[in-house]
Amino acid sequence: MKLSIKGKQAMWAYIFIAAPLLFFLCIRIAPTLYTFNLSLHQWNVLSPDKPFVFLQNFTDLFQDDVFWTVARNTAVYVIGSVPVGLLISLIIALMLNSIKKGESFYRMLVFVPYVTPIVAIAWVWRWMFMKQGGIVNHVLGLFGIPQQPFLDSTTQAIFVVISNIVWQNLGFYTVIFLAGLKQISKTYYEAASIDGASPWQQFKKITIPLLNSTLVYLIVMATIQTLQVFTQVYNITAGGQGNPGGPLNSTLSIVLYVYQLGFKSYNMGYASAVTVVLFVIILLITLLQLKFLTKKYDS
User: Fold this and answer.
1) How many Å apart are CA 190 and CA 212, to the nearest integer?
2) Could you give the 3-state DSSP secondary structure of residue 44?
3) What is the pTM (predicted TM-score) of this model?
């Protein structure tokens, strides 16, 4: 069969799309569907029997005190790190956008934490906040402040992890904010200045509305990343008994709990049920954020 030029273009388009589509189906979709299937079974790796239990794993999950603890911890991670991280990043981006010389150098400095291996930074954080020998307690001692337990505390350890998450992501958020600020024409600010608008009025009426799409993107991405926090918790608050999650599970996140269930207890069915719940939470939060935060402005 002889194809027309458009037919040949379409054929090659499908051929080029086929490879990434197949990769996406095999790497993303298939494991997701398999996880849904596992969540409906009592699937223990060490047991030859894997009976179908329908929603029993979900029923057990909602009666699991540890699950509610990790859900609360994960919510604290999101609420404590996303707004603070975005606010600091926006301030840094505004400062970088206003300087005339050396912007590239300062932008590189700000971006360095993001390209630094998370595990390495997490262990530096762990050393900084050690009760004995930590540099933070040493600095506090210089001002006469008593030593703090930090990582050994059920109330302080989670905020140590949050500070690491905020610091690690500052560079990425700042660069994205800066890219958004560069897209705003200076003529808007010049016209507003002529009309007598103050810097705060210009920020409120020009910068924030025209930065809305960037802001929505960062809020959604930051929330999704924080809901899946794992590496920082695992490396910073692993206790002396080798059980990451802080004292009394005070820093244990949902993803780390899934890891413990699946690869420590070998209870894949229950771990999959927790994963499905996390998937639903992320989906709902993302949809709500897109619905209520996305706004259209007349430029």
Assistant:
1) 21
2) strand
3) 0.87
